């Protein structure tokens, strides 16, 4: 674990411990808008606090999801009110400070264009796209009620998974970070295989001879 990540985790732990549920909400807002703040560490820590009786487990999930939705709304608003070329220029100049590269931004746009609301829901479960899928939703613009529903559902699944990991792992909750690395690698492998399979299927469809029309009876 890097020194920067350790500093972030120490700050987040102190904020959640001292401020309770509001601190967890704020941590998840920051995690959504500023991805270097890792939900993969915030949520297991909150889960172990629930195990110790500091929080209720359901309260952790609700507060975390509320924070995730608030953070996603900030990015949705950025997409709603800014032109695409302005956002792209900002990403090129300052994206590295929040973990957003130009290819990732363009990929989020492409995924949303193809799949819409489903992309928002699934995107909340995919490392790298979790935050930034909200921007093209705002650019579309997607109906706000649809965006909120898809974001809340996807976020609640993600938050439940990692809060339960903390509850289950107990004092070894930091091991969840290693689990996340395996999860991210698996997701990337599956996504890569899906892309290759789709490319092959499209190529086969293009070169396959078309059946001649049947002669009229």
Folded structure, characterized:
With 217 residues, the protein is mainly α. The protein has one domain. Helix content is 76%, strand content 0%. It is built from ten helices and no strands. α1 packs antiparallel against α2, α6 packs across α7 and α7 runs parallel beside α9. The longest helix has 33 residues. The N and C termini lie far apart (74 Å). About 7% of the residues have low confidence.
Task: Give the secondary structure arrangement, pairings included.
Elements (H helix, E strand, L loop, with lengths): L2 H17 L1 H13 L5 H13 L5 H25 L2 H11 L7 H14 L1 H7 L10 H6 L4 H26 L5 H33 L10
Which key features would you list for this structure?
217 residues, mainly alpha, globular
Report the major sheet: none
Global outline: globular
Low-confidence stretches: 185-199
| Helicity range | over 70%
Separate helix tally = 10
Strand portion, in percent?
A: under 5%
Structural class: mainly alpha
Number of strands: 0
Q: Write the H/E string, N to C.
A: HHHHHHHHHH
> Separation of termini?
74 Å
Q: Mean pLDDT across all residues, rounded?
A: 75
The radius of gyration over CA amounts to: 20 Å
**Count of folded domains:** 1
Question: What's the short version?
Answer:
By secondary structure, the chain is mainly α.
